[in-house]
């Protein structure tokens, strides 16, 4: 009799697990009922998303958006704990009792400095200062929709378990989830689900870039720039000297590092030597250790700039996030359900919108894709996919097994953080993609409630991926939430 090694048994178990996930090609009656329930409320959740799109509140200022989602969940019988982790716009909504505890993340912050009407031609809205260029107006209501659908299923079946909706503000640079992780708010959660607006549908076990963000402030001495320049010490010189050194440093750091900055304060008038200047930096890398090494060199550059210009330098870390830690078994489960749900089918009017919007993409970056691609689901891939962005979901994924998906809320070929993304996020195209995500999240959560073995395997895979000696320490240290970082 041939002996089978533990390694071979592991491979066999993985193969059987994958086969079971792929075997189901059509929804069950129960799954059809869950999806139909969401379809019946699609217009309602679309109204919520459009309201948040109109408000376009930036990080830690999402007072109306957060209140709207809390109101919706309260109406559905959830218990709300508001103002958690020292953040007025953060909350946790809970329904049910006992194990397992399944969490769903919701975001609702907008980006500053980009506005657009819901039209396929460039049409900024002059009365607004921010816009949902990352689609978080859809993220929040879509996650709420899925949580409510799971709540309805728990009530109908009498199944034991808890569904939690985490209202997480300031994902765009404010690291809202990091403070919630730091406060232990995910310690009793078994699995966390999330999603994100995109220009395609997929659920691969991808990762992301770890990130540190900070504001460097220089203080000098004001003087008349023509009559007595020798008496002045320019804070702007400090900022520009730092920027020059950082730009030279790019040649001598790992090439896959990303550093970007904006000068947020540079003085008031050319004939006055600026006594205060500020520059806002982001630095990213997939490896946290390399990220922290580059960050230390950036601080040295800032210190040198202050010394050389005889200005005083201080810095404030605004945010810091981990890279995403994928769990392949959970991603396969999510992909199975996303495939059952399917993609986004455009109406003739939506197709015309998509084609017109696509004319603005250009061909330089190979971004031209057919609107019909929104109706497809990308094939599953586990080839260590690395995303080019950063997210505070990363920190969550290192303290609890986490899985996500992307849904085609934008016209295929749309770049995130663009006016085209703002436009689509305010239309029925965005709402259709949002409901694809809501259905996929709900079906995945229900699978986890029904089969404890899925959770056990996810936890085992997750423990192995993060390592036995891992200890979580926030990259932003012990600072309090940066509630004024957008002010």
Automatic annotation (TrEMBL):
Gene Ontology MF term list: dipeptidase activity; para-aminobenzoyl-glutamate hydrolase activity
UniProt signal peptide: 1-23
Gene3D superfamilies reported in the protein's UniProt record: 3.30.70.360, Zn peptidases (3.40.630.10)
Keywords: Hydrolase, Signal
GO BP: folic acid catabolic process
Domain Peptidase M20 dimerisation: 212-304
Any GO CC annotation of this UniProt entry: cytoplasm
PANTHER family xrefs: PEPTIDASE M20, XAA-ARG DIPEPTIDASE
Protein name (Swiss-Prot/TrEMBL): Amidohydrolase
Organism: Larkinella terrae
């Amino acid at each position: 009799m041939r002996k089978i090694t533990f390694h071979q048994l592991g491979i066999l178990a993985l193969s059987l697990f994958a086969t079971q996930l792929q075997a189901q090609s059509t929804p069950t009656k129960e799954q059809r009922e869950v999806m139909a329930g969401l379809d019946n409320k699609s217009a309602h959740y679309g109204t919520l998303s459009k309201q948040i799109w109109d408000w376009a509140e930036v990080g830690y200022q999402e007072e109306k958006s957060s209140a709207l989602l809390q109101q919706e969940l309260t109406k559905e019988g959830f218990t709300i704990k508001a103002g958690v982790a020292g953040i007025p716009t953060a909350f946790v909504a809970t329904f049910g009792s006992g194990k397992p505890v399944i969490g769903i993340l919701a975001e609702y912050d907008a980006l500053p400095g980009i506005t657009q009407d819901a039209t396929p031609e460039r049409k900024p809205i002059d009365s607004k200062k921010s816009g949902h260029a990352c689609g978080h107006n859809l993220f929040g209501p879509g996650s709420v929709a899925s949580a409510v659908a799971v709540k309805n299923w728990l009530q109908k079946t009498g199944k034991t378990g808890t569904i939690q909706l985490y209202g997480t503000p300031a994902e765009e640079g404010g690291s809202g989830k990091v403070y919630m992780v730091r406060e232990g708010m995910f310690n009793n959660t078994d699995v966390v689900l999330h999603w994100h607006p995109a220009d395609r549908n997929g659920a691969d076990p991808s990762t992301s870039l770890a990130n540190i963000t900070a504001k460097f402030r220089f203080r000098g001495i004001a003087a008349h720039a023509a009559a007595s320049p020798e008496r002045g010490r320019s804070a702007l010189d400090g900022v520009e000297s730092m920027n020059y050194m950082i730009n030279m440093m790019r040649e001598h750091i790992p090439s896959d590092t990303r550093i970007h900055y904006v000068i947020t304060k540079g003085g008031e008038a050319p004939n006055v030597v600026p006594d205060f200047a500020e520059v806002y930096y982001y630095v990213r890398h997939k490896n946290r250790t390399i990220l922290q090494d580059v960050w230390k060199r950036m601080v040295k550059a800032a210190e040198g700039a202050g010394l050389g210009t005889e200005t005083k330098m201080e810095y404030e870390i605004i945010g810091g996030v981990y890279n995403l830690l994928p769990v392949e078994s959970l991603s396969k489960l999510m992909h199975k359900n996303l495939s059952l749900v399917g993609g986004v089918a455009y109406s003739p009017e939506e197709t015309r919108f998509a084609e017109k919007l696509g004319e603005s993409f250009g061909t330089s970056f190979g971004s031209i894709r057919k609107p019909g691609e929104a109706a497809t689901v990308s094939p599953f891939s586990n080839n260590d996919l690395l995303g080019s962005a950063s997210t505070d979901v990363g920190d969550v994924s290192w303290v609890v097994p986490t899985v996500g998906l992307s849904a085609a809320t934008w016209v295929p070929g749309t770049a995130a953080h663009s006016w085209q993304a703002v436009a689509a996020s305010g239309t029925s195209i965005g709402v259709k993609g949002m409901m694809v995500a809501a259905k996929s999240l709900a079906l995945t959560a229900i699978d986890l409630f029904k089969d404890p073995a899925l959770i056990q395997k996810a936890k085992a895979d997750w423990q192995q991926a993060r390592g036995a000696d891992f200890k979580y320490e926030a990259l932003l240290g012990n600072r309090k939430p940066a509630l004024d970082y957008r002010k």
